[in-house]
Predict the structure.
Amino acid sequence: MRRYGKHTDEDDIRSRPNRKGNRPRSNIRPKHEDAVEGMVLTVDRGRLTCLVEDRVVMAMKARELGRKAAVVGDRVGIVGDLSGEKDTLARIVRIEERKSVLRRTADDDDPYERVVVANADQLAIVTALADPEPRPRLIDRCIVAAYDGGLTPLLVLTKSDLASPDELLEKYGALGVPHIVTTRDEFVDGAAADRVYEHLRGRTTVFVGHSGVGKTTLVNALVPKERRRSTGVVNAVTGRGRHTTTSALALPLSGKEGGWVIDTPGVRSFGLHHVDPSRVILAFPDLVPGTEGCPRACSHDEPDCALDEWVAEGHADPARLYSMRRLLATRERREGD
């Protein structure tokens, strides 16, 4: 092995060429000031379908974004071929700041959170009153995820001709969550879509629900015919629906007032490992002032929580505190417990 002493000349040292090229590395990233804004409509195996003005453009994420991923609903900066013609591919070079995010984890003990949708205004939670049976715990978890992400929840109950909605609605009465109750006949004649539309126009709404509740059927009634998706049926043995939606997709809402609906794959669980109680309570503005005396990092469901005394003094409805704590408790219990 050759050794170099203090009198070694620089010519005696053999320099190894940079196999990746001789250009020095730089931490300076291009600004892409000429990037055009687009909206991500869907993501499929690394390819992102985006709406740029009136054109649908296929794009991929630029290397300089690193591990940062764009999701459906993201506003992004795009460069390259924006013609939208067949076999063209643009690059997403920037993801704009998000005004809201819908997150979930695969399970409650999974520390890796996944952003499902960005920049939505509300979350429509679709559940059947029968066939399949409603799952209140899943509804609770979806409501918590909506509050945590800055979305307004909307409860859509289907198949009320098979079972009464009264018990379920009583459970959510204190939360003040707006709701719509529909029958199977209303799905057929379009009355259900007309009533749901009143809550959607001019807004971006994410639809979630487990399979077989009529979620995609409802979405199809709200969007132009050429954009409709396939639907499935409920298994007569298991009572579960078949997943027909495999990826989230943003679709334009029919009507002159605009708006978007985002259909998501049917969910069987909604992990809440990522949820911060301090964000959830912001959805209860009548309770927020009572948290001023809470200890640091209070979960708002512990012996020292200041909300108990504050509500006992008559500053807020006890039912509201109970409902908020019931929602927060879903973080500690697995779906189905």
Q: What stands out?
A: Residues 136-149 form the longest helix (14 residues). Confidence is low (pLDDT under 50) at residues 230-245. Residues 63 and 190 are 46 Å apart (CA to CA). The first strand starts at residue 36 and ends at 44.
